[in-house]
Specification:
Layout: H1 4-8, E1 55-56, E2 67-70, E3 78-91, E4 99-104, E5 115-116, E6 120-127, E7 144-147, E8 167-173, E9 180-186, H2 192-198, E10 201-207, H3 209-214, E11 221-229, E12 251-254, E13 257-258, E14 260-264, E15 268-275, E16 284-286, E17 292-297, E18 300-308, E19 318-324, E20 333-338, E21 352-358, E22 401-410, E23 413-416, H4 421-426, E24 441-448, E25 455-459, E26 464-469, E27 486-489, E28 494-500, E29 509-515, H5 518-522, E30 526-531, E31 546-547
Parallel strand pairs: 1-14, 3-6, 5-10, 11-15, 14-21, 22-24
Antiparallel strand pairs: 2-3, 3-4, 6-8, 7-9, 8-31, 9-10, 11-12, 12-13, 15-19, 16-20, 17-18, 17-19, 20-21, 22-23, 24-28, 25-27, 25-29, 26-28, 29-30
Length: 567
């Protein structure tokens, strides 16, 4: 068993420090290395160091279900079943060297699971990791969270619902929500950062008829998982959380490829941009200075499409952006750059993300759209059968309660209202931040009182509408005018949001709130709320993982044929 003392030493395991890096104290932000310090934390030889834009873009493979059918034979109640194995794998992230990773099916990013609204999905997840970790001495215990899903608590990835090596858990996902970019990742308390950084992250796009009719599909619907990493001289992953403050790598990867080049046709593309870095935030922009168009936020489509020259994006936020390549000529090169934000540690090439190369048009163009839409229609409601109100239709007068979450560091720990997850554990998991009732609408204000740090705060289960910021003239930024579940609380910023706790008759129970700088979450920036009775749907005991007696290899993965490499 890995103890807290072991975990506090993790910054020194398998890695190295940033030369000249200063911690900044409990409340201080990271200080950039002094002038003249080599700006690279990786120990790679020049021949093994990736060159920006030399890599070929690739999409994560899409997993096929091993079983499909209808609940009770009713055609109106379709289901699909998938199987994933958490296991070690090998990848060539950097030239000439192989890197051991810990991933779903042993790959990074893990397999994409595409879901349709109304189709219930079960995902069988087996922990087949060995008894020792990659970046820490203990076993790779896991918890899987489908981020953005209205799952029951026992399938939501509660931080203490642990699957140990040799065990399996069957996760149930209802998929009744509107279309959105979901993703699944590890959520094991104290080692979430290491597990996600090692490779446990993947896409789960959820579609519905409204989204399919209005936004690009197929070839023109492209997932972009952006992450950063540092590497040891032998190609193994380096790790340094800088005294539990964060990890900033010098190599930016998109779908596991350092600074790739993607070939694009002169069409409108939809990019599902997910930041899967464990700490770094980004401010993407096009090298041409032209705008991108925000079509969806974390929890679905925006009512009014927003043209922006750049946007700020923290860990776990998702933005679906439209880029119009129709007026570019074949052979033209366009870079997606990173302007960065306050309190990142930036290096020689962290200002680059990827590059697009325009090629001649070909094929039928199936899945493309003729123009950038001005407005989008998600059907007007979460789902009438659930009794929900469309998130962007919420108004302050609907709120039956107002709550405040203050984010700050105290006694060497990251806290929310002075509370840590250790406090929740000590209470027997009874300590609550709030106890809204089913279908209540509440107004929550998130205040970053931690000095120079920023925090992307994630509230499980809910979709929310940002109604106020103490920056940007008191209004939400243009890129966050759709439903959200992660809130970028910049330095000394506050955000006010409305949310409805629409769960369904069989739902309720405990859900987490935490910083998605995963180093902060692990030490120990997480609290919980309960919808209704906190004893309902106990997230640890209701449907715990069990020993997997099924022989390994019983569920060989099958993947949907993909698009050509580089597109």
């Amino acid at each position: 068993m890995t103890t807290r003392r072991d975990l506090l030493k993790l910054g020194a395991v398998g890695a190295f420090g940033l030369a000249g890096m200063k911690g900044g104290g409990d409340d201080g932000a990271p200080v950039p290395p002094p002038a003249g310090t080599p700006l690279t934390p990786s120990l790679l030889a020049p021949r093994n160091t990736p060159i920006p834009y030399a890599g070929v873009f690739r999409r994560p493979p899409e997993l096929l279900p091993f079983e499909k059918g209808y609940d009770g034979g009713d055609p109106s109640r379709p289901f699909e079943r998938y199987a994933l194995t958490q296991q070690l794998g090998q990848a060539q992230f950097v030239p000439g060297l192989m890197t051991t990773l810990a991933g779903y099916n042993g790959i990074f990013p893990g397999p994409t699971i595409r879901a349709a609204q109304g189709t219930r999905i079960e995902v069988r997840i087996r922990n087949a990791f060995p008894g020792s970790g990659l970046l820490f001495p203990g076993p790779i215990n896991t918890v899987t969270h489908l981020h953005g899903s209205a799952s029951l608590p026992q399938y939501d990835g509660y931080a203490n619902d642990i699957t140990v090596p040799g065990n399996v858990k069957n996760y149930h996902y209802p998929n009744w929500q509107t279309a959105r970019t979901l993703w699944y990742h590890d959520h094991k308390h104290h080692i979430t950062a290491q597990n996600v950084y090692s490779g446990l992250a993947a896409f789960y796009p959820l579609s519905d008829k409204y989204e399919r009719a209005q936004l690009p599909q197929g070839e023109f619907d492209v997932p972009l998982m952006i992450s950063d990493a540092m590497f040891n001289a032998d190609g193994s992953l380096g790790y340094n959380d800088n005294g539990q403050k964060g990890l900033w790598g010098d190599i930016i990867m998109v779908n596991g490829v350092p600074w790739p080049t993607m070939k694009v046709k002169p069409r409108i593309y939809r990019f599902r941009v997910l930041v899967a870095s464990i700490s770094r935030s980004y401010r993407p922009t096009l090298s041409t200075g032209e705008p991108v168009y925000i079509a969806a936020t974390d929890a679905g489509m925006v009512p009014n499409v927003q043209a922006v020259k750049s946007w700020r994006q923290g860990t776990a936020e998702r933005y679906e952006v439209l880029i119009d390549f129709r007026h570019y000529k074949a052979g033209q090169l366009i870079e997606l750059r990173n302007l960065s934000n306050k309190n990142n540690i930036d290096f020689a090439n962290t200002g680059k993300i990827m590059r697009f190369e325009v090629v001649a048009d070909s094929g039928s163009g199936a899945g493309s759209i003729p123009s950038i839409p001005a407005t989008l229609d998600d059907g007007g409601a979460l789902n009438p059968t659930r009794g929900g109100i469309a998130t962007m239709n919420l108004t302050p007068d609907m709120a039956v309660a107002k709550r405040e979450l203050k984010l700050f560091r105290a006694n060497g720990q990251w806290t929310i209202n002075g509370v840590t997850w250790a406090d929740v554990e000590k209470s027997g998991f009874k300590k609550l931040f709030g106890n809204p009732q089913p279908y209540d609408v509440e107004q929550w204000t998130i205040t970053n009182a931690s000095g120079g740090w920023f925090h992307p705060l994630h509230i499980h289960l809910i979709d929310a509408k940002i109604i106020a910021r103490n920056t940007n003239g008191g209004k939400p930024f243009a890129w966050e005018t759709g439903p959200k579940d992660v809130f970028y609380a910049g330095e000394n910023e506050s955000i006010t949001a409305l949310m409805q706790f629409a769960t369904g008759a069989d739902a309720g129970g405990r859900y987490m709130v935490h910083c998605h700088n995963l180093v902060h979450e692990d030490h120990d920036m997480m609290v919980q709320f309960s919808i209704g009775d906190l004893r309902n749907n106990d997230p640890i005991s209701s449907d715990p993982p069990v020993w997997d007696a099924t022989p390994e290899g019983s569920y060989p993965p099958a993947y949907r044929p993909g698009f050509p490499s580089g597109t």
